[in-house]
Every structure is written in structure tokens, then in C-alpha cells.
Design goal:
The complex is a heterodimer of chains A (252) and B (305). Chain A is built from 7 helices and 12 strands. Chain A is an alpha+beta fold and 252 residues long. In chain B, the strands form 2 sheets. Chain B has a two-stranded antiparallel sheet with strand order 1-2. In chain B, strands 3-4 form a two-stranded antiparallel ribbon. Classes of the chains: A alpha+beta (252), B mainly alpha (305).
Chain lengths: 252, 305
């Protein structure tokens, strides 16, 4: 009997990962971009399912990341050449998400270890894939610049302590999607950490799509560009003529 | 009211766009310029991707120019013959310009070239116009009105002469075709209608009367920008029709108001105002090139090398 208890205690201490898992859902699994789209709030909520009582003193933490579709980008740096500022050096970032928000229950450093960040690519710096080839020998600056510019534009965000966690069981957070969204599948990842190690993960996607008029115009412009171009011209001519005619009537 | 633009993929305030369109439209109607040299940088500034801004602007210029030219039709201040000759050069020039633009794009520094083009052309044209119209204004103030005698320079010695009755000219078709060609190339590179170069070229190089110049320039711009719009729509898919509609609703109304204002002002006053405006935009663009930018880095789409 004694060795059984001992076994259980060591098992519980050694492998808490097996005993806890995340159950979660989103307030909406699709975002429709309409003409009057001004951004959207996604509510992420869930609970920690425990198969057995966990006797670890360190409190659990939750990290929620939302990532937009990734694409390669070029970051250019201006330099003064012959008195004028021109794009001189450039770096190719292999892949960077168009949108990236990280929400946590506490400061990043206390929630996740560096090793686990590397393994799961949680923080912004990890979400950007960059082999580090830059013209002027300081590739880190290009990545920092990319993050800085996107943060200023509201595309990248780190919301430390924004995840509400009740009784170490229920969690909830809302992630704001800006109006300038790119179409595609947005990946939502939820990490449960204990002692800065990831014990459980959950992943789902939000589908961001243009609908209605937006979808129609976008498709027309790409599938039938000539018709789209002629239509644009016709609208322009008609608007010009209408305005002119309206002014004629008004002046009489 | 925020509006999501389907091609630009950004959300912008609809009233801001209407206001910008209206403001630029007034200037367009007043001076016979398409207003692209003002609108394109303004669109960059409010966060429209440059490629979309340039292409959409071409479409918007079609509308404001068409609206403006109708007012000139009624006043019979359009020289169709001259417009047609300019257009021949303009269309060839626009096609050449697009080829040149794509070549420079492959070299990488197209951004800088566009800016330098703006600074050089706006500076030269604005400066010349300012000095000239200042002199003209001073002359017209002095009591003794000297009748202007048309100079007979090299322009009048070229072959293929043609009579342009509305302009009261009998000159060779070579200079107008060349003017159209140069403006066409610049229009395609700079994403503008080219009125701000065309108008002074018509006045000082061809010796056309100012009143006819505006209508004729608008007439020619419609076709050149229409052609450019189609080129952009079919090769780069960057014409945003929602953006264009918002800009042109403001633009066409503004152009009507502008034409009315323009008809009431004296030609010299009109020219000095346009010169001032051109120099102002030039100074702003030059400052951007010369002063240290607050953000040294910029993000572009991957060029894939």
C-alpha cells in the first residue's frame, strides 16, 4: 500500500501533463468582411479538464495566440546616399504572420520558458521565420523593425495578463481583430503551462472571408480583369457625366 | 463611417475619402490638372498600398476630367484637333512608360525614381510658371498694355503644319506629338494624369491661349488615364473600384465647383495659384527625401529573390 501511494505521488509529480487538458471554444469560428467591416472581437473561452487532482503548487497559466496567414516580406532600410534618403539595405523575412496577438495570464517571462517558446513558437519573435540574411550585417534590426512597424499599425500585440483565469480552471479572453484584415485562415492556439512548461495545447482556426459585394468585386478583379477595368471606366465616365448634368440643372 | 476596400484590403473613413476627392476635384476643375500629383501622395499618407493608390487614381482622374471637360465643351474651350494630336503621342508614351516602369521595378529602385521625378518636374514646372506669371501679373497691372506678339521660333519652322482653329495656331504637328509622348511616359511612371506638365507645355511651348489649354488638356487626360487604368486592371489587379467611386463622387462635384471658380479668375491669377500649389507639393516631397525619416525601415511585399 505504501509503495502504491509513493508510486502515485511520483507519477503525479513527474507527469502532470497527462492529467490536464484544455477544453475551449470561440465565440465565432468565421469572420465575414463586409463593406462596413470595422474589426471584430473574438471571445476565446474554455476550461482545464483534469482526470485526477493535481498537487503541484505552482499555479497554471494560459497563453492564447491568434495568428493571421503568413507570407514572406521584404524589410528595407533607408540610408543617406548623396544627401537623400534612399532604400539601401534589405532583408528577406521568410515568413511573417499578417496578424499576431498573444494574450497571457501573466508576464511572459513567468509564464513560459525560453526553451518552450522555441519549441512551440509562441512569442512574436518566434512566430516570424527569418534565417537572418541581411545586406548590412545586422539582421536582428530588420526583424525588430518589422515587429515595431506592425505593432504601431495594430497588427501585432502582446496582451500580458489579459486572460482571466478563475479557480485555475475557467479562462476567458477577447482578442480584437483590426479592420485591416487579410483574408485567410487565422490559427488560434491555446497553451496551458505549469512551471513555465507547456502541459497541454489546443488549436483551432477562424476563417476570415470577404462576403457579398466585397467578394464579388475581388473575384471579378482577379478572374475577369478586362471586364472589371471596363466597368471601372464606365462608372467613372457615368459619374463624371451625372455630376456635370446635375450642376447644369442646379444652375438653371 | 468606416468602409472596407475590397482590393486595397484596408478599412478607411468614407467621409475622409469624399473630402479628399472633393478638395482635389476643385483644384482639378480650376486648373485643368487631373489632381493625381496631389491625390496619389495623399492616398499613400492615409495608408492605401502604393500600387493600389496609383492604379485607382488613374481611374478617378478619368471621372473628374470627364466631368470637367463637359463644362468646357459647353463653353467651347476644347481644341479637339489639338487634343487628338496630343493623344496620339500620349497613348504611345503611356505604353512606353509602363514598359519602362516595369523594367525599373525589376531593378528595385522604382520608389526613389518616382519621388525624384516628382521633385524635379514639380520644381522646374512650378518655378518657371511662378516667375512667368508673376511677370505677367506685374505687366497687366501697369497701365500701358502691350499687345503680346507671338514669337516665331524653331517650333514654327518644322514640317507637317496643321491649322488649329480653336487655338488660333498654324504649327507643325511634331511638337504637340512630342509633348503628348513625354507627358504619357511621365503619367505612367508617376501615376498622374500629367496635366501639371501638359498645361505649361501647351502655353509656353505651343503658344496656345490659356482658356483653351485647360479644356484640351482635360480632354486628352481622359483617354491617357483611361488607357492606364485598363493596363493596371489587367496586369496588376490593383484598381479598387470602391475607393475610386468614393474619390470620384467627391471629385466630380469638386471639379464642377472648380470650373466655375476658374472661369471667374484671371488667367494670370490662375497660373500663379497653380504654380504655388505645385511648388508646395514639390517642397514636401523634397523634404521627405532630404530629412532623416522617423522610421528608417519599411515593409514591402517580397520581391521573391
Amino acid at each position: 500500500m505504501r509503495w502504491l501511494i509513493l508510486l502515485f505521488v511520483t507519477w503525479a509529480a513527474a507527469a502532470p501533463a497527462q492529467s490536464e487538458s484544455i477544453v475551449a471554444d470561440l465565440s465565432q469560428s468565421r469572420v465575414s468582411i463586409t463593406t462596413t467591416f470595422t474589426g471584430s472581437e473574438i471571445l476565446v473561452f474554455g476550461a482545464i479538464k483534469r482526470d485526477a487532482p493535481v498537487e503541484v503548487l505552482d499555479p497554471p497559466h494560459v497563453i492564447v495566440t491568434v495568428a493571421g496567414p503568413s507570407a514572406p516580406v521584404t524589410v528595407r532600410k533607408k540610408d543617406r546616399i548623396a544627401g537623400i534618403w534612399v532604400n539601401a539595405a534589405e532583408a528577406q523575412i521568410d515568413s511573417a504572420p499578417s496578424f499576431y496577438a498573444v494574450s497571457t495570464t501573466g508576464p511572459m517571462a513567468t509564464v513560459l520558458s525560453h526553451t518552450e517558446d522555441l519549441r512551440h513558437s509562441v512569442s512574436k519573435n518566434r512566430a516570424i521565420r527569418f534565417v537572418g540574411a541581411a545586406d548590412d550585417g545586422d539582421p536582428a534590426h530588420f526583424q525588430e523593425a518589422l515587429i515595431r512597424i506592425r505593432e504601431d499599425a495594430g497588427a501585432y500585440a502582446l496582451n500580458e495578463g489579459e486572460v482571466a483565469f478563475f479557480d485555475d480552471t475557467l479562462f476567458r479572453t477577447s482578442v480584437g481583430l483590426p479592420a485591416n484584415l487579410v483574408e485567410g485562415a487565422y490559427t488560434v492556439r491555446i497553451f496551458l503551462t505549469r512551471d513555465r512548461n507547456v502541459v497541454s495545447t489546443y488549436e483551432t482556426t477562424i476563417s476570415v472571408r470577404k462576403v457579398g459585394l466585397e467578394r464579388f468585386l475581388y473575384n471579378l478583379a482577379h478572374d475577369r480583369p478586362l471586364i472589371y477595368g471596363l466597368m471601372s471606366l464606365a462608372i467613372a465616365i457615368a459619374a463624371g457625366w451625372l455630376a456635370s448634368a446635375a450642376f447644369q440643372i442646379m444652375r438653371r | 463611417m468606416q468602409i472596407y476596400l475590397p482590393i486595397a484590403e484596408v478599412s478607411v473613413n468614407a467621409f475622409l475619402l469624399l473630402g479628399l476627392g472633393g478638395m482635389v476635384g476643385v483644384l482639378s476643375g480650376m486648373f485643368g490638372v487631373g489632381g493625381g500629383f496631389l491625390m496619389t501622395p495623399l492616398l499613400f499618407f492615409i495608408g492605401i498600398p502604393p500600387a493600389v493608390a496609383v492604379a485607382t487614381e488613374a481611374n478617378q482622374i478619368v471621372a473628374s476630367s470627364f466631368s470637367g471637360v463637359l463644362a468646357h465643351f459647353r463653353r467651347r474651350t476644347v481644341d479637339f484637333r489639338m487634343g487628338g494630336v496630343l493623344l496620339v503621342g500620349g497613348l504611345v508614351g503611356a505604353a512606353l512608360g509602363v514598359v519602362l516602369f516595369n523594367y525599373l521595378k525589376s531593378l528595385g529602385q522604382v520608389d526613389l525614381l518616382v519621388r525624384l521625378c516628382y521633385v524635379v518636374f514639380l520644381g522646374v514646372v512650378g518655378g518657371l510658371m511662378f516667375i512667368e506669371s508673376l511677370n505677367a501679373l506685374r505687366k497687366s497691372r501697369s497701365a500701358t498694355e502691350v499687345p503680346k506678339r507671338r514669337k516665331h521660333g524653331w517650333v514654327h519652322k518644322l514640317p507637317f503644319k496643321m491649322r488649329f482653329r480653336v487655338s488660333g495656331l498654324y504649327i507643325s504637328v511634331i511638337p504637340p506629338i512630342l509633348v503628348g509622348l513625354v507627358v504619357g511616359v511621365l503619367a505612367a511612371i508617376m501615376g498622374v494624369g500629367g496635366g501639371f506638365i501638359m498645361v505649361p507645355a501647351m502655353i509656353y511651348l505651343l503658344g496656345m491661349p490659356t482658356k483653351v489649354v485647360v479644356g484640351t488638356s482635360l480632354f486628352q487626360i481622359i483617354f491617357v488615364t483611361g488607357f492606364t487604368t485598363l493596363l493596371h486592371a489587367t496586369t496588376n489587379f490593383t484598381v479598387d473600384v470602391v475607393l475610386a467611386v468614393l474619390l470620384l463622387v467627391g471629385g466630380v462635384i469638386g471639379a464642377q465647383i472648380g470650373t466655375q471658380i476658374g472661369a471667374r479668375l484671371k488667367a494670370e491669377q490662375l497660373r500663379i495659384l497653380l504654380a504655388g500649389l505645385v511648388l508646395l507639393v514639390c517642397a514636401k516631397l523634397a523634404a521627405d527625401l532630404l530629412l532623416m525619416p522617423s522610421e528608417l525601415y519599411s515593409i514591402g511585399e517580397s520581391t521573391g529573390h
